[in-house]
Q: What sequence folds into this?
């Protein structure tokens, strides 16, 4: 077993793999000065990246929608990621790919090349057998279909969220829910699995869960009201750091007596099976 | 005269004044990874900071509203700024103070100390005798009263804005205008000076312009519709990089035959006089 305590961490920054402590960017970076950047995040389990191509597809889409050229080819990106996984040999590794508008001479206009960072970090899953508690929050991300670096509102509300004993937020606006701060939301009502279609980030876990659910349930992708969410039989959330996790409570509404529902359990195991394929 | 070409630039970063090329922050900074940070910007003219205390007041207010402790006292901040002005002896110096949520171990929760950068750069004023052209844009900043690092939408629309020949955006939502991407907006109708009261950043130039206008015009701070803006006699914008600049055109509406209006000229000279006090 590797000596984790004394293990060096390695990052990638603008063409170079380097010790994490040396991964520093100049203060004129447009991600830092203006929040102009995107990222993606996926896992490597026992040295094997999970759904990497889906995440790189999404990174490319975010980059295109933000007008940010990716300075490495897809093939080279994968080589770098595999090298980083070897250099950071944790059983569970989270890999964050961040790309910003570069070193802007005027502090406002994106400049080429984009700054590209790849930051691997060991991580721990949310336990799959404990439900999460959400706090409703009136909000919609600015450009929901892009995985931007913009998290001011959910971070600013962290103290209030923790005071309420909640693990995450449930965004809603004009009566409809959209997503959580970093994951997608599904509800189950009368054996129908329902998830918001618009105004959300199209999660990779969401995609596979939808595929799997279509084989076992009736599935609807459409607007979902907050009211029907609170009246659902079961609610669950999906994301790369969570896989499928039950929501046991939203504000004061408790689902299924606080226990994980049968259908959510079934979807959890279907997804785990799919991921381990 | 200093040898600008070969002049070194100096920044401040977390307790140290250092050469700009060495001003680098680690990639785990929460401003970079999550856009969690604030800034302020003011000028030094011929070595003398302009309205510095107003800007530091606003920085403190932004910091408080974001829950970010400022790692230096007000007095020490001013000492550092004055030292940076001496080390960067440009006639016109823009001074940007940036503060972020620190090096976050989990990449999400703000950590202490905040990262504090002060970045001086020479700059050039928008010419006061040429009007600017604005493109209307349906948008409102997420937390308008805080000077956050969040500029994704206006930067993303830059290519479209430039294609339209516009110099900046005019934000409007639900029929009301708010501000431009980096400055405040005033309209003049029948010798009344009117500016939006809510949903805007409270600019330091805006504050002094309001004070001065109250001595010479009727002044209203209230909701301002886009319709009345387009029907105004004169429109102008205020900001630390602009002072007072006329708006000669919004979309296809031209004001005052494209020339700077008399009342705007008066306010320009009133402000310049006040600044040079």
A:
């Amino acid at each position: 077993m590797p000596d984790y305590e004394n293990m060096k961490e390695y990052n990638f920054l603008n063409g170079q793999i380097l010790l994490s402590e040396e991964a520093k960017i100049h203060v004129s970076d447009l991600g830092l000065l203006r929040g102009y950047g995107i990222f993606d995040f996926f896992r490597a389990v026992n040295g094997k990246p999970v759904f990497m191509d889906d995440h790189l597809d999404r990174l490319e889409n975010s980059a295109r929608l933000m007008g940010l050229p990716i300075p490495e080819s897809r093939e080279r990106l994968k080589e770098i990621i595999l090298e980083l996984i070897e250099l950071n040999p944790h059983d569970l590794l989270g890999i964050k790919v961040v790309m910003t508008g570069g070193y802007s001479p005027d502090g406002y206009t994106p400049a080429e090349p984009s700054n590209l960072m790849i930051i691997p970090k060991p991580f721990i899953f949310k336990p799959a057998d404990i439900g999460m508690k959400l706090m409703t929050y009136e909000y919609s991300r600015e450009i929901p279909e892009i995985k931007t670096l913009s998290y001011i509102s959910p971070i600013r509300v962290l103290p209030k969220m923790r005071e309420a004993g909640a693990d995450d937020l449930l965004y809603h606006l004009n009566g409809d829910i959209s997503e959580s701060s970093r994951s997608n939301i599904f509800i189950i009502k009368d054996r129908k699995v329902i998830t918001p279609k618009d105004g959300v980030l199209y999660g990779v876990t969401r995609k596979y869960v939808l595929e799997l659910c279509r084989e076992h349930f009736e599935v609807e992708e459409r607007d979902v009201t907050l009211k029907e969410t609170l009246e659902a039989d079961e609610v669950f959330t999906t994301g790369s750091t969570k896989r499928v996790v039950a929501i046991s409570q939203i504000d004061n509404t408790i689902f299924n007596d606080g226990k994980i529902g049968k259908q959510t359990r079934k979807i959890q195991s279907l997804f785990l099976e799919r991921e381990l394929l």
Q: What stands out?
A: Chain A touches chain B at residues 11, 13, 20-21, 23-37, 39, 66-67, 96, 98, 100-101, 107-110, 117, 119, 121, 142-143, 148-153, 155-156, 158-159 (CB under 8 Å). The helical segments of chain A are 30-34, 52-66, 74-87, 152-156, 158-163, 204-216, 226-230, 262-275.
